[in-house]
Amino acid sequence: xxxRLRGPNLSxxxxxxxxxxxxxxxISTGLLNPYWQNILFWGAxxxxxxxxxxxxxGFNGQFSLGQFGFYAIGAYAxxxxxxxxxxxxxxxxxxxxxxxxxxxxxxxxxxxxLRRFYGVATLTKFLFNLLAAVLxxxxxxxxxxPAIGQPLYQALNGLPQGIxxxxxxxxxxxxxxxxxxxxxxxxxxxxxxxxxxxxxxATLGFTIIVKVLLDNTDTLLPFPEMKGARGMVGIPKWTTxxxxxxxxxxxxxxxxxxxxxxxxxxxxxxREDERAAELVGINTASTKILAFVVGSVFAGLAGGIxxxxxxxxxPTMFGFLPSFNPLIIIVFGGLGSMTGTIITGFxxxxxxxGLLRLYLPEGFExxxxxxxxxxxxxxxxxxxxxxxGRYEIAFLRRPLPSLRVVKxxxxxxxxxxxxxxxxx
Amino acid sequence: MSVAIETRRMEQRMIRxxxxxxxxxxxxxxxxxxxxxxxYAVARAAAxxxxxxxxxxxxxxxxxxxxxxxxxxxxMVYGIVxxxxxxxxxxxxxxxFTSFFTISLLNLHQWPSTVWPGMNPTLVMAIGTISVILFxxxxxxxxAVTIERFAxxxxxxxxxxxxxxxxxxxxxxxxxxxxxxFAFTNNYRTYPRPFEVFVLNAEMxxxxxxxxxxxxxxxxxxxxxxxxxxxxxxxxxxxxxQRNPLLQFxxxxxxxxxxxxxxxxxxxxxxxxxFELTASNAMLIIMGISIILLVVLQYIVRYTRIGKAMRASxxxxxxxxxxxxxVDTVIAMTFALAGSLAGAGGVLYATAFxxxxxxxxxxxxxxxxxxxxxxxxGSIPGAFVGALTIGxxxxxxxxxxxxxxxxxxxxSLLIIVLLIRxxxxxxxxxxxxx
Lengths: 424, 434
Hints:
The complex is a heterodimer.
Chain A: H1 10-28, H2 34-59, H3 67-86, H4 91-114, E1 117-118, H5 122-158, H6 161-191, H7 196-215, E2 232-233, H8 241-259, H9 262-272, H10 274-279, H11 284-310, E3 312-313, H12 325-333, H13 338-359, H14 368-382, H15 403-408, H16 419-422
Antiparallel strand pairs in A: 2-3
Helix pairs in contact in A: 2-8, 2-11, 2-12, 2-13, 3-4, 3-6, 3-7, 3-11, 4-5, 4-6, 5-6, 6-11, 8-11, 9-11, 12-13
Chain B: H1 2-16, E1 18-19, H2 21-48, H3 50-81, H4 88-104, H5 111-115, H6 121-152, H7 160-178, E2 189-190, E3 199-200, H8 207-232, H9 236-242, H10 245-270, E4 279-280, H11 281-303, H12 305-315, H13 317-322, H14 327-353, E5 355-356, H15 362-375, H16 380-400, H17 406-420
Antiparallel strand pairs in B: 2-5, 3-4
């Protein structure tokens, strides 16, 4: 008998609201200076990325190193939307939003179509979905943008300045996250078939391909405003504490509720034993893709937050070395523990960018990256299961069966096998 | 009753469903067509500019052989401990820097002339270069064994992810410790080559060399095929001789150096003088040294006690322990071999590209790893073939597709190979354990 998941209870709601209000007061009174504010927002974004990776690797057992690729896609897509918007060009907004909608509709249609066949290979699935997505975005670029781009811009600009900005920012975040989700779906179909290490290598390859593409956005891709390896400047600085808080809480709540639903049980069972999960009737392929896509959507959302906080994007932010941060965070916090990820996510950015940068003596700046692998090595040697293991705080955990429930369950069968016999 | 109705409905539904094979064939055809189109476009570009093509083939060989040395380390370590040793690329960097310091501070590449003044300069160069490489190999072997002893061995009983994270940690440590001002500093530094580099042109290639190289290659190939023929008929001695490293050496050394020299010799006759083909003696030296090291490695893995122990441990560790093999020593030896090859690779890479930097190990390390995966991880010939493939593909895509995209093309190749043949070209299909 499954226990029902507790809803957000009063103490939780009050606690998080109090936290929100306190930080907001600190920010508006200027006690939390922009530097620490930046660290806080960055920590929240990194935690969201890491939560996504924890869903993929910690809870679903699929070793992925591609999380930063989706982070980069979300960041660049949402930054491009707002960048063009403030320069009176609604095209990016229209293309990303309507293209994503069309692509999703087409991909749903393709999935329904392919379900009428049996024995469909992964490559086939991949090709048809790819074509559907490309068609969706093509239609958006070719037909929807010329038709409704300017009217939409006029309509949104007719609203008061603050409101239209918030709407556009919301759409940019959603667009970036959706784009990351669509790309991860397309990439996940063929790649999630691979085994553990091979999946890691393929996703690492994905990160590097994304980085190389970002290096050449102005020469090879038609996005001159991203300025390739020179870095994208001029992104509006729209990220505020309410936005960060809402996105962060949304990610945490979605992940918590997902993990405690029956789909979440399926996700966990794939981690424990894929073959056994398949034998009890779980569609392991679609479960893996679901976890992968949701994790990447979190990363894309975090990318939007980060882009509008920094107001500057550079491909090296998404390069090979920083792309290990989420993995390090989740292993540090404990694979399969949301609590651990949240604690270490903030702590990691605080340690790396706040503490070590400010309090190390002059000239020891470069020692930062010598100290932090040593911390990592020490952690791995002393506590390899991570800070929290698989522990969760009460809010993120299904409550333990109470006595009442134990009474309701039927008694154990009379001829239960003895423990020794089973243990053979 | 309801069960029967349900079954009939299921049957009807199955009949209505169609076979997806048609769609599969269609999409396979589409992918094949896309592949052929890309190949055709590259081939057309190559045919239009034959000089660039041959130049890139030479560069690709040079790069591929260096990757092969590093890839062998990845593949051996993965084969025996199932660990993606991310620190391997940084051992490669340390190898390059070791030779940088031994050359610039100690003048190690000229020690024969200080000991015996008036020695033949070519001989001085040869002995000096070899000793520089050997010194770097030694240091890197020590480094790799140290890393194994203190970072990986305590974690061997734990889940593999801990060792992987540790490998990443060691890698970052080497990179950024190397970047400190008193170590290697974080600037690009010009690398003093251990030998004089000169450009080869067609007049400098005597036909005798060509004849000797091709003769060695063809003779080795003939002996190999005769032995193979005899071996197939059941001659056990022939089977044993067939795997002789000397035969491999003859075929590889004669073949590859022969190809390079033939291209250099033929270039002005076929391509014309419009394109200046630059091949240097560094290219030949790099390829020669790599081939020698590869053959020595093959010999060690195939014929020595430690090599046999390595293969046994890679196959089944608990049973090897029961047979009296000290698996810990074997793993340490594997790391030493891998590290020494990476060290040699670092020296050769720095010689080829003439600069060193504390982050220079990342991308070549990753590429070599990709090469090992493409060739089939755990397989030594696979690593060699994969490295040559990656080297050629990277350099050709730089020449004919777009220079900044070379990394993306190499990794796309990796993803494509993984999708078509996940175990790599030479890898064995992984048996599923239940």
